[in-house]
């Protein structure tokens, strides 16, 4: 560094205003013996000083001024009469509002304005603060100016901004109008191929003709491609866009489409259910229950229906209702009676309570093992060892229709699990339990209809076998699979 430069720097450090402005200017420009170092230059320039603001506004390119958040200095310099600052500020305001950039493209200082970079900054600003229509105009302007350079990073950032705009448009349930369809498609595909799940999800739906609030009908009007769309949906689902699994199920389950594949449809439905989609859980549970021929299959089906119902899915709840036999007697009277029984026979009282909340027959209530039969979703009445007829002795899975029913099952399991050693002596076999029940009812003046469901062997068999249950519950089943 020359002696005069060292002297100038010393004066600037001592607080000389003119020296500070000159040192700041040289650092910003990298001129007259000083290396370019923007941060150092800004340290020497007081931004509330009009002269310093003018140096800042005229020394840095417009894009850099905006990136450094120096718009106040640009405005101050423009107010102070700087023609360059006024031109830059006007260009920024025009691009920020999504105005036509043509006048600035034709101006003498177009290269200095760095219009493509500034347009990208304007779009980024609009994404955070402006209405959706203004954001679309800014993006359209950025696309119009993008051809002026071959900056791959800038093109990638523009594509990322488009995806964010699509995401916002879908959240606001309003189409992103005003952008050329091909520009939208190219940006989405670019980001989708880089594992952007939002882009892949939007592109997959559009190509498959699935409604997406972010797009008007013209965007994908000439670009329908079911196989390509399904591939992008799969990419989105694999990246964590869980809603895509259900779309894939619907596409592959539709025999009219070119991508129809029942095995893949079931796989996608299972994926959607596993990822917590209530509709998928309900449909998977309904399909499994319709096909069930053994207890494990019924249990798995009820598991999925229970998860869907817990999320407020009404059709799933209706299917669960169809598996529980009604016990129409008054809850208040039954509760009082159970408490009377509990004083002398707590095991029997628990069985009566389970019978009411799970719709058990008299035989099921007396033979169920609450500790063995407890499930996260309800209760399984196991095979009855005291009955020789297979149809009457077969196990049955019964869902809990309320939190109170599930609590009753857990309390019963806990009681019978802790008192298992005493229960055998206290309860005896099925014959002894029946005798104790009869004596308790006679003593208290109770009736079976207060606690037990009535059902024929054919009705019980229909609740155990999926195809027979499906015929019995065909209306709610149809609604559950169609909704």
From TrEMBL:
- Taxonomic source organism: Pseudaquabacterium terrae
What InterPro entries does this protein's entry cite? Sel1_AlgK (IPR050767), TPR-like_helical_dom_sf (IPR011990)
Q: What is this protein called?
A: Sel1 repeat family protein
Classify the source by domain of life. Answer: Bacteria
């Amino acid at each position: 560094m020359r002696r005069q430069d060292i002297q100038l720097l010393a004066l600037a450090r001592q607080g000389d205003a003119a020296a500070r402005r000159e040192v700041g200017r040289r650092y910003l420009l990298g001129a007259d013996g000083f290396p370019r170092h923007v941060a150092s230059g800004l340290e020497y320039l007081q931004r509330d000083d009009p002269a310093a603001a003018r140096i800042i506004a005229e020394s840095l390119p417009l894009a850099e001024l905006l990136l450094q958040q120096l718009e106040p200095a640009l405005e101050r310099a423009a107010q102070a009469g700087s023609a360059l600052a006024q031109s830059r500020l006007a260009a920024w305001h025009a691009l920020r509002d999504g105005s036509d950039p043509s006048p600035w493209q034709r101006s003498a200082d177009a290269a200095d304005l760095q219009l493509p970079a500034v347009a990208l900054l304007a779009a980024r600003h609009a994404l955070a603060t402006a209405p959706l229509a203004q954001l679309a105009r800014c993006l359209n302007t950025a696309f119009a100016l993008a051809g002026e350079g071959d900056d791959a990073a800038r093109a990638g950032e523009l594509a990322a901004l488009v995806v964010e705009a699509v995401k916002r448009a879908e959240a606001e349930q309003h189409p992103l109008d005003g952008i050329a369809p091909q520009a939208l498609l190219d940006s989405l595909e670019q980001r989708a191929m880089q594992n952007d799940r939002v882009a892949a999800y939007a592109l997959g739906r559009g190509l498959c003709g699935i409604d997406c609030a972010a797009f008007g009908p013209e965007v994908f009007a000439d670009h329908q491609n079911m196989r390509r769309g399904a591939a992008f949906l799969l990419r989105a689902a694999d990246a964590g866009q869980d809603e895509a699994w259900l779309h894939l199920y619907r596409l592959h389950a539709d025999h009219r489409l070119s991508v129809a594949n029942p095995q893949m449809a079931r796989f996608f439905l299972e994926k959607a259910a596993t990822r917590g989609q209530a509709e998928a859980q309900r449909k998977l549970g309904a399909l499994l229950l319709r096909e069930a021929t053994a207890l494990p299959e019924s249990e798995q089906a009820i598991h999925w229906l229970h998860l869907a119902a817990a999320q407020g899915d009404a059709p799933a709840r209706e299917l669960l209702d169809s598996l529980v036999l009604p016990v129409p007697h008054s809850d208040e009277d039954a509760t009082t009676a159970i408490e009377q029984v509990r004083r002398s026979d707590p095991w029997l009282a628990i069985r009566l309570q389970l019978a009411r909340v799970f719709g058990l027959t008299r035989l099921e209530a007396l033979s169920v093992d609450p500790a063995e039969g407890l499930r996260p979703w309800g209760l399984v009445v196991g095979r009855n060892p005291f009955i020789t007829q297979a149809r009457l002795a077969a196990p049955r899975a019964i869902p809990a229709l309320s939190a109170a029913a599930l609590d009753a099952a857990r309390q019963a399991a806990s009681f019978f699990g802790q008192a298992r050693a005493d229960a055998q002596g206290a309860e005896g076999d099925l014959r002894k339990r029946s005798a104790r029940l009869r004596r308790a009812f006679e003593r208290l003046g109770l009736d079976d209809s207060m606690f037990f469901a009535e059902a024929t062997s054919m009705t019980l068999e229909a609740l155990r076998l999926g195809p027979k249950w499906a015929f019995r519950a065909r209306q709610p089943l149809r609604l559950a699979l169609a909704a």
